[in-house]
Amino acid sequence: MAQVRTRAVKLLVSGVLVATASGTVAFSSMALWALEASTESSWVDPAGAQALVVPAGALSRVRLAAELHQATKLPILLSGAVDKRSRGDSSHMRDLFESGYDITPQWLEVRARTTEENAAYSSCLLHAKGIHVIVLVTDADHMLRAKLWHQYYGFQVLEAPSSFSRAATTLRDFFPSSSGYYRTYRFIHELGGLAEYFLKRVLGVRLTCKADFPIYPDRSQADWAGMTPRPNVAV
Predict the structure, then answer these.
(1) Looking at the domain assignment, is residue 186 inside a domain?
(2) Does residue 12 lie within any of the structural domains?
(3) In this structure, which of 7, 146, 167, 172 has its CB flanked by the most CB atoms within 10 Å?
């Protein structure tokens, strides 16, 4: 009985220590660095690229994509579902490009809700236009999974990562915080996403192009007012 209690206490203490450590910026940043280690530390030379592809997400993606567009004049595809509850979808990113940088993205894909769907639906649009080499703009900790999915759907991917994790710089970073737990959640989320990718790759599972999902094609052909998803032309 004493041995059982001792083991139980050890397990409890270990659990508390792990839970505490996982909530610190110091621990979570190191975890994210493991994901970021496979990507470049700055945007690539986009020689040969045909388009910029930006999955819906953080503002840092907009800033980097705007810089790349201004430097290269490559057309921009924004990919991600319209969601009135969120300001992170592709339509709101479109607004940021136009209001903040006077840039109008060429295409807006508004159905994708996962990284795989970002890649699949982007391929439906861009491959039909002869575009196979892209500069992928996304967060550094998301780049590995996003790159794998876009390659899976036939793209040659040049990386343009943003939002690298910062190192622990203050004493506060070694104590649990909401920021630390969120970073750890992101790390676990990416690991789960990578596991899903490898499983689907082994099984050969792929999404297919459909004629009924909403894509706003070339900006000259689309009325972007309101951004309500609607059936569109086959791609």
Answers:
(1) no
(2) no
(3) 146
pTM of the model: 0.77
The more confidently predicted of residues 135 and 42 is 135
Q: Which residues contact 115 (CB under 8 A, 6 or more apart)?
A: 55, 142, 145, 146, 149, 193
223 by DSSP, 3-state: which?
coil
Domain containing residue 88: CATH number: 3.40.50.620
117, 16 contact by CB (below 8 A) = no
Amino acid at position 30, single letter? M
Does 27 reside within a domain?
no
Report the percent of the chain where pLDDT is more than 70. Answer: 60
Q: Structural domain tally of the chain? A: 1
> Would you place residue 123 in the very low, low, confident or very high pLDDT band (cuts 50, 70, 90)?
very high
Tokens encoding 232: 């569109």
Domain that holds residue 69: 42-163+205-221
